[in-house]
Write a structure and sequence with these properties.
Number of strands of chain B: 0
Number of strands of chain A: 6
Mean pLDDT of chain A: 86
Distance between the termini of chain B: 67 Å
Strand order of the largest sheet of chain A: 3-2-1-4-5-6
Number of helices of chain A: 20
Radius of gyration of chain B: 19 Å
Oligomer: heterodimer
Order of helices and strands of chain B: HHHH
Shape of chain B: flat
Order of helices and strands of chain A: HHHHHHHHHHHHHHEHHEHEHEHEEH
Largest sheet of chain A: 6 strands, parallel
Mean pLDDT of chain B: 86
């Protein structure tokens, strides 16, 4: 990107890069519509392949041993993981892929620094002399952002998969500790760039690596398991940023373009998610949510009165007369692996002339849009999956609402009780439906740890049991009624 | 500050704006595949990893640098291949209403 005259192979590779970034953009554009999304993703993958070809031409005749080894090993690991993962475990998988992207950028910067130290000529006093102070700062920031992405993603993965406690871990003075770690990393970056002593520079590099890895842990550990989707989305933004910064370090416009696009995209998604939970990003990042509210929850659960129970046969009898049904799925449905059973029941109802739709709360599942993926896996057509804002007004004209494995997102308290911790969170107004079925194992509270008056409402029937077994029971009863 | 850095800043800012515009119109249905697809794109750092692995190969006595550069290629490839594949798997499941036969 300088003003020097380029060789032919550099011109060729840069033209290929240019095509690939345009294809990246077109791919992302197509990914924003359901009909073209798969094609868009394939375009982006093609653009990545093209960019690698460009890089190969730019490198030319070099020793390819380590590149080939890395690509083969990485391709096998990534390919196997991606083809084996269950759809319910998608958030964990994305967290891990995200972490690998972060550490890759970090390692690029670390290796780059080590090679700079190695190739320093006597005329060059320090790294700032070799690559300019700005590139040096970009190098330090790449390590910082990449390492935070890496350890942060690992912690997020641990919390999502239950290997780490989902509770917020609140160390005393954690903001002070994180602040100190950040300052130490920043100071070490200064030393690394400006010191003329190679040994001192490498020591500074080690300090940066250690402090930034700790910082990633320190930033994510105080955040509760339920907020992990927001964290992953933010870390996704960071990994893009790290790639863009790496682009500044090694002067690569492709890295800058693609990385900053992903950085901006991740930021938008994070905002959307926070809005859906009626929380500010700051509020999520400071952490600790869910701890104080959880204490009294078990007592609250015993306070329910007038809970009406029903079994699968009784529920099926009501469904026989229903003209319109809205299913409200929550993550509990996916845990019970009930989505196929739900779709089969919906097919039966559809055959009887009943309209079945699915109401998707923005934070249903564990990532925005996760529920859509889970339903799509069970062959639920996407036209039947309706966003909360569009379906909320329809509940009052609906005969039966079936809540399965969801709790907080259907809690009417969010609309009425100003003292509730979830007050103001947008919820699905299921209580307006003619009859509400709540399929749930017990009366235990949801993630927010609060009581749900929906369970004792006049028009609510509680169907206690395993989601899958309950829905299958309803289907069997519906079939018997037909015979 | 050199001219190429200024150009880099232009590229950075304009791409961020483009990314912001491209993503803000996505329906919620696609948020998960989009997050994972965008994540795969951030694996573009593989280009930097390739460069470093090639440079490190010239200084093979620096075993640590060679190891770290190779690892960066491994991780970046995991990110790219895994990310695009898993996104494709997810999007392959999105189907329109089945025609009644």
């Amino acid at each position: 990107m300088g003003s020097e005259v380029l060789e032919f192979k550099d011109v060729a590779s840069h033209l290929i890069y240019l095509v690939s970034v345009v294809v990246f953009m077109l791919g992302i554009m197509r990914m924003s519509r359901v009909k073209t999304a798969r094609w868009g993703n394939q375009m982006a993958a093609g653009a990545m392949f093209l960019a690698c070809i460009g890089q190969a031409i730019e490198l030319g005749m070099v020793n390819w041993t380590f590149i080939i080894v890395g690509v083969v090993v990485g391709g096998l690991v990534g390919g196997l993981a991606a083809s084996r993962v269950e759809m319910t475990e998608m958030p964990e998988m994305v967290a891990l892929f995200n972490g690998s992207g972060g550490i890759a950028s970090s390692l690029v910067a670390i290796a780059s620094y080590m090679l700079l130290v190695e190739t320093r000529t006597p005329q060059q006093a320090n790294v700032a002399d070799q690559i300019t102070a700005f590139n040096g700062v970009a190098l330090g920031l790449t390590i910082l952002v990449g390492a935070i992405t890496f350890t942060g993603s690992i912690v997020a993965w641990g919390k999502l998969s239950g290997r780490l406690s989902g509770n917020p871990t609140l160390l005393p003075g954690r903001h002070l500790i994180n602040g100190a770690l950040f300052l130490a990393a920043f100071g070490a970056t200064g030393v690394m760039i400006f010191t003329p002593d190679p040994q001192q520079g490498l020591m500074a590099l080690v300090v940066i690596c250690v402090t930034t890895c700790l910082l990633g842990i320190g930033l994510v550990i105080p955040i509760g398991g339920g907020d992990m989707p927001v964290v992953i989305s933010l870390l996704n933004s960071y990994s893009g940023m790290a790639a863009a910064l790496a682009g500044f370090t090694i002067n690569s416009p492709v890295l800058i373009v693609s990385g900053s696009m992903v950085g901006a995209a991740g930021l938008i998604l994070t905002q959307i998610m926070c809005k859906a939970m009626n929380r500010s990003l700051m509020n999520v990042l400071i952490g600790g949510f869910g701890q104080s509210d959880g204490a009294g929850s078990n007592e609250d659960a015993r306070l329910y009165t007038n809970v009406k129970r029903a079994d699968a046969e009784e529920a099926a009898m009501i469904l026989e007369d229903a003209r319109t049904v809205i299913v409200v799925p929550g993550y509990g449905m996916a845990v019970a692996q009930a989505q196929h059973a739900v779709r089969e029941m919906a097919d039966l109802l559809g055959d009887r002339g009943c309209q079945v739709r699915y109401a998707i709360h923005p934070v249903a599942g564990r990532m925005p849009g996760h529920m859509n993926v889970l339903l799509a896996e069970a062959d639920v057509p996407y036209e039947a999956q309706v966003e909360m804002e569009r379906i909320n007004k329809d509940f009052k004209n609906t005969d039966v609402a079936i809540v399965i494995g969801a709790n907080d997102v259907v809690n009417p308290v969010a609309n009425t009780d100003t003292t509730s911790p979830i007050y103001g969170m947008p919820v699905l107004n299921v209580e307006e439906a003619g009859t509400v079925f709540v399929i749930k194992r017990s009366l235990s509270p949801g993630y927010a740890g609060i009581r749900n008056p929906l369970f004792e409402a006049e028009n609510t029937l509680m169907l206690f049991g395993d989601g899958k077994a309950m829905v299958e029971g309803m289907s069997t009863a519906l079939k018997e009624a037909d015979d | 500050m050199t001219f190429s850095l200024i150009m880099g800043l232009y590229v950075f800012i304009l791409s961020s704006v483009a990314g912001y515009q491209l993503i803000s119109k996505v329906p919620p249905t696609l948020h998960t595949p989009l997050m994972s697809g965008a994540n795969a794109i951030s694996g573009v750092t593989i280009l930097g990893a390739m460069t470093m692995a090639a440079q490190a190969a010239e200084h093979q006595d620096n075993t640590l640098a060679v190891a770290l550069a190779t690892l960066s290629v491994v991780f970046a490839t995991v990110n790219v291949i895994g990310g695009f594949l898993v996104t494709d798997r997810m999007l392959g499941m999105f189907r329109a209403k089945k025609r009644k036969s």
